[in-house]
Structure to design on (613 residues):
């Protein structure tokens, strides 16, 4: 063995061992990709939502080692009860795949199912080992320690179907146009980068926010006790009011390029979704980072928390429940820092003698308020370069323009390992996102019961989107008057009406118009048909479910139609004497009986910004 090879082996041995001992890889080789797509196309399919897709990517690349697929019942129950897999391996969050009753009827243990996203793109195949039913409230109590639906993790969980499908996965080589391709380093890529630098003690910093001066201080304290640091921001699904990942990445690049040592700093994207599970998620963030080659993780106060659901130190204390070597990552338990006006510098409660009134402590909501009003953030709070990125983003949002989303797609290797300079694979065009086609508008499809507020929200969006772009509303009542006159309210006639609306919406979008529809559209199957036809046109389709209870709709119904329908005086009334099938996986759900019009519009706008629309 040559001296170079010997050195490489010794350096490799210094890297932290993956969780469970082996770094999993469930991505099929490039030469098998076409065969996998053909197999998947012939199978019953399961549509994964954004969180499930993020979990699938973590499993496929080995970030979620030792998992090789979605959890079975024994592992699932063990995770809920004791934050361990059934074999005793520490694992705090259930990675599950949910299906409706209708999809469950098509599946059987011992067989396979295709895994697709909302646009119908094939991601892989699941070899079904079992199908079981969960109690979502039991899971909420175990993982989030609450059933309060104001907790975003609980709200998500209670919106999902109860059937869970388990099994190992085989995943297609990752799409070449995934966001942040330049920084989307797989565990193998990041380990190779760490190995090349000769680092042994590697700090990691998890964040879903821009890095302010206090965060910067903590990361540099970590650099004092390690060989290098990986700034590893989460780029999966987050709350609607979080700063979009594309904006955050511009801020990270500006900050790191000027204020961090280049030879001791790496910036990489972490493609997970936020669950806001507090202590359990802090533990998860540490374990997964070990698979990336990170040995020390900065764990601050209320890490991965939300609201007042967790105590400020619980995310740090959870590590004390496990024995040496079980987690394999050292938590760096720093006190939160702040700028003290009296001290004139950054300090913590351990080093600053002054009262809280002397601290410059801006909440996230206060920061957003300052930026939305066009104000300037104090230089003591954030670097000017970061403040400028955020100011520009909020200024664009205030003008009603879709903020620029810079994903800078770059090709990935066939096994999903990081950016390469090679030409994209032949499979990439077939998997291209419909948002990538130039010259198109898009379809914004509002669905919900009569009186829920679809037309109100549609007109509100038109007012906000209409500056500098063409927007048209296809209102259900108007379409029935001018385009579908003569149709009744049988299922066949309702489907015909929705097909006509969908056809006109596709024509408008194809010609660069934002087509907003506001029709009850009560049946899932016909809505899915419209979505599929839009996908074939490479037209973005965003479904918005306007949710409202019957009780609330009865109270606000000035025409009294709901009371008449409940009394049997009105036939074919959707939600009373005719069915309404809520969407399984809408891009957005708004609750018009619980939130203001402005809050609902903000949800929709956030979803459009996230997709670059």
């Amino acid at each position: 063995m040559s001296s170079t090879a010997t050195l490489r082996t010794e350096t490799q041995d210094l890297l932290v061992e993956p969780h469970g001992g082996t770094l999993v890889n469930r991505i099929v080789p490039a030469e098998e990709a076409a065969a996998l797509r053909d197999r998947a196309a012939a199978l019953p399919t399961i549509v994964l939502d954004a969180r499930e897709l993020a979990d699938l990517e973590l499993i496929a690349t080995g970030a979620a080692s030792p998992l090789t697929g979605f959890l079975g019942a024994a592992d699932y129950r063990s995770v809920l009860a004791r934050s361990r897999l059934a074999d005793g391996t520490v694992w705090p969050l259930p990675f599950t795949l949910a299906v409706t009753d209708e999809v469950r009827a098509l599946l059987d243990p011992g067989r396979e199912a295709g895994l697709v996203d909302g646009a119908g793109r094939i991601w892989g195949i699941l070899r079904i080992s079992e199908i079981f039913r969960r109690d979502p409230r039991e899971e909420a109590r175990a993982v989030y320690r609450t059933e309060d639906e104001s907790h975003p993790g609980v709200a998500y969980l209670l919106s999902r179907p109860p059937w869970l499908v388990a099994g190992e996965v085989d995943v297609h080589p990752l799409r070449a146009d995934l966001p942040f391709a330049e920084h989307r380093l797989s565990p193998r890529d990041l380990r190779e980068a760490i190995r090349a630098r000769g680092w042994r003690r590697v700090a990691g910093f998890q964040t879903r926010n821009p890095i302010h001066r206090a965060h910067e201080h903590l990361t540099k304290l970590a650099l004092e006790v390690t060989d290098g640091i990986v700034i590893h921001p989460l780029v999966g699904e987050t709350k609607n009011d979080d700063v979009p990942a594309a904006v955050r990445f511009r801020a990270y690049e500006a900050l790191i390029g000027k204020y961090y040592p280049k030879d001791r700093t790496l910036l990489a994207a972490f493609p997970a979704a936020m669950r806001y599970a507090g202590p359990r998620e802090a533990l998860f963030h540490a374990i997964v980072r070990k698979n990336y080659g990170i040995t020390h993780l900065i764990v601050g106060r209320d890490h991965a928390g939300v609201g007042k659901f967790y105590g400020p130190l619980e995310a740090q204390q959870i590590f004390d429940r496990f024995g040496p070597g079980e987690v394999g990552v050292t938590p760096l338990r720093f006190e939160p820092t702040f700028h003290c006006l009296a001290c004139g510098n950054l300090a913590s409660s351990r080093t600053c003698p002054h009262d809280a009134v002397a601290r410059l402590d801006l909440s996230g909501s206060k920061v957003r308020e300052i930026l939305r009003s066009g104000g300037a953030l104090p230089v003591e709070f954030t670097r000017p370069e970061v403040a400028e990125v955020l100011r520009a983003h909020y200024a664009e949002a205030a003008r009603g323009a879709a903020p620029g989303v810079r994903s800078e797609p770059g090709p990935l290797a066939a096994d999903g390992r990081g950016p390469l300079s090679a030409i994209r694979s032949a499979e990439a065009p077939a998997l291209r996102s419909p948002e990538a086609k130039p010259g198109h508008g898009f379809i914004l499809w509002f669905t919900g019961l009569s009186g829920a507020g679809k037309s109100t929200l549609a007109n509100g969006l038109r007012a906000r989107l209409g500056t500098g772009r063409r927007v048209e509303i296809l209102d259900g009542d108007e379409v029935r008057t001018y385009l579908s006159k003569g149709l009744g309210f049988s299922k066949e006639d309702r489907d015909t009406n929705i097909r006509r609306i969908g056809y006109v919406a596709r024509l408008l979008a194809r010609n660069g118009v934002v087509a907003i529809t506001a029709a009850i559209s009560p049946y899932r199957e016909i809505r899915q048909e419209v979505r599929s036809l839009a996908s074939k046109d490479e037209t973005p389709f965003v479904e918005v479910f306007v949710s409202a209870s019957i009780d609330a709709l009865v109270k606000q119904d000035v025409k009294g139609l709901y009371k008449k329908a409940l009394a049997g005086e009105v036939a074919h009334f959707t939600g009373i004497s005719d069915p309404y099938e809520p969407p399984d996986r809408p891009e957005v759900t708004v609750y018009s009986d619980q939130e203001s019009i402005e809050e609902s519009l903000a949800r929709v706008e956030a979803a459009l910004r996230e997709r670059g629309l």
Summary: The chain has three domains: 16-171, 187-398, 436-610. Confidence is low (pLDDT under 50) at residues 1-12, 401-436. The radius of gyration is 25 Å.
